[in-house]
Structures are given as C-alpha cells and as structure tokens.
Write a structure and sequence with these properties.
two-stranded antiparallel sheet, 9-stranded mixed beta sheet, alpha/beta, 13 strands, LysR family transcriptional regulator, D-Maltodextrin-Binding Protein, domain 2, elongated, Arc Repressor Mutant, subunit A, 321 residues, LysR_subst-bd
C-alpha cells in the first residue's frame, strides 16, 4: 500500500469513474485500474461496486477511504512543517470552538490572523464539549477552546476564562437578571440539557450531587440552537453562560437569572496535544488566539467573562506581552 494507490482510491471514489480519475491524476487509465487492483489484492476485499453507471465504494472501501484522507492530511501537514521557515508561518491550522463562544470569537480571530499571517489557512469547527475533546485527541484539531476540566492524558490546557452560569427561560417565565434563583429551585424546573460527560451538564450534575438534589431533565439535545428554540417555545429551561444568550435577552427573546447557593461557574482553556509537535503556524495561531480572547474580555465584547491571567497560558508554552 503506497501513496499513489491511496490517492487513486480517493480520486476514483470522488469521480465514480476510472477514466475521470486518470485525467485528474494525469496518468493513463490502466495505471489507475492497476493501483486499485493492487489495493484489493493486498487487502483481500473488493473496494468498489462496479456497474454501468460507474464505481461506488463498498463498506470496506469506505473504511479505507476515511483512513486514506487522514493519511493525506498528515502528509500535507508534514510538508507544511518542513517547508515553513523561521521568517514566515505557513500551513493549515484547525481550531475547535464551543458553539456558545463561536459567534463572539470567530470573526475577530480570523480577521486578525488574515492580517498577521496571510499564508496560514485557518479552519474553524464548532461542536459540543465532548466532540471538541474527541477531535483534538484523534488529531482532527491542532487547537481547541474547551472546558478546562476536560483535560486527558497527553493534553496540555491553559485556564484562561471564567464565566458565571445563568438560568435561562422563555421571556414570559418570570426570570430577571435582578432576581437570583437558588440552585435547588432551578433543579426543580423542567430542564433541557445536553447528555455529555463534559460541559455544563457535567458541572450541573456535580453541583447537584453536592447539594443533594436531582436535576429535572425533560429533554436532551447537544445543539445550542435547538436548546434555545425549545426554551423559546416554552418546553423548559436551561443553564448557559451569558455570552450564549446576551443578544437574546437584550432583544427580548429569552429571559435570564443568576444562580446562587451555589453560584455556578465554568472555566475555559486552550488545549493542545503535548504528544504532537506543534508547527510554527500552530504556535502563531495559539498565541494570537490568546491575545484576541484577552482583548475581547477586557473590552467587554465577551460579556461577563473574567480573564484568568497570563501564567496559565505559559503552561502550554505561549508567552506574550
């Protein structure tokens, strides 16, 4: 199994036709057919269904294609790391963001990186806390902004943000930012949460154990937009940071109240895998992310967030003034 064979597999899968794949790869058609046949002989399985309409991956073919894409991506990253010089950062960096913070951070970060590092291609993906952690572990992300308590083996994370959590409900449910709600009272309300090992659900479950109550969870969804829609339509309440609902509360779509006894907070951090060599491009994006986050916290663009300081950032090898 070699690079050319895997590239042939991917191209045939994308085009559904050996002739079209051969043109894209700039080789003769028999060469592509031979490469596919060599893969099938080596693995002892058929990788494509073949009929008059073209070629379609078998189940085994889809498995190999998925891994082939990852191998190609790793080769691309290796080339970028090797070609990068000390004078200029070059390459692709994939950053994972929680859905609750993507709106406040994405455009500011992209704009800053485009000005400073025009040869870095930044990809931003959004997801729930557990998904972000999984993607970082398996190498789909170089950097992740995630819950600071989600650290796993071979991961370095710096705590940089702390936020209070609020009880969120429909605009006519009686909640007010001027009137705190006791945690135990909030747990008695119908709640809509994500079913996750990490994130706000985990923080709520841990606090509930300490207080001796059980959350009344009536619906589960990991999509923030779905959570807010269900709350808007009166199906229940949830608990979120202010940044996730600031515009909704301001515009009269949702209502919010502080939670007390105890006060709930979440801490976020920037995480990287210590087991992987960071490219210069990754180091540049990581440092700029820290600067952008610090700036929008201090200017109030990230509402209700508290900056935890530079010393935490030094834990992942980033220094700045």
């Amino acid at each position: 199994m070699d690079f050319k064979q895997l590239r042939a597999l991917i191209t045939v899968a994308e085009t559904g036709n050996v002739s079209k794949a051969a043109k894209i790869l700039n080789v003769v058609q028999p060469a592509v057919s031979k490469q596919i046949k060599q893969l099938e002989d080596e693995l002892g399985v058929s990788l494509f269904f073949r009929d008059k309409r073209g070629m379609e991956l078998t189940y085994e073919g889809k498995i190999l294609e998925e891994h082939a894409h990852r191998i190609m991506d790793e080769i691309k990253v290796a080339r970028e790391k090797i070609s990068a010089t000390s004078e200029m950062a070059i390459g692709t960096v994939t950053v994972g963001l929680l859905a609750s913070v993507s709106d406040v951070l994405s455009s500011i970060l992209i704009g800053s990186l485009e000005r400073l590092y025009p040869r870095i291609e930044v990809r931003i993906v959004m997801g729930h806390a557990e998904h972000i952690l999984s993607w970082l572990e398996r190498g789909d992300l170089e950097i992740a902004l995630l819950y600071a308590d989600a650290a796993v083996a071979e991961m370095e994370i710096s705590k940089i943000i702390e936020e209070n959590l609020y009880l969120i409900g429909a605009v006519d449910c009686g909640l007010s930012v001027e009137t705190p709600v006791a945690f135990s009272d909030a747990m008695a309300l119908p709640l809509i949460f994500a079913n996750a090992k990490y994130g706000i659900r985990y923080l709520v479950d841990q606090a509930a154990k300490r207080v001796g109550v059980r959350p009344r969870v009536v619906l589960e969804t990991s999509a923030l937009s779905v959570q807010k829609r269900l709350i808007l339509e009166g199906y229940g309440h949830t608990i979120l940071p202010w940044v996730a609902v600031a515009d909704d509360v301001k515009n009269g779509r949702l209502a919010a109240a502080p939670i007390v006894m105890p006060t709930l907070t979440r801490q976020l951090g920037l995480g990287v895998m210590s087991s992987r060599l960071q490219s210069k491009a990754t180091q540049c994006v990581l440092a700029e992310m820290l600067l952008c986050i610090k700036r929008i916290v201090h200017t109030g663009e990230w509402p209700e967030a508290r900056w935890l300081g530079a010393r935490e950032a030094e834990a992942i090898g980033v220094t700045y003034s």
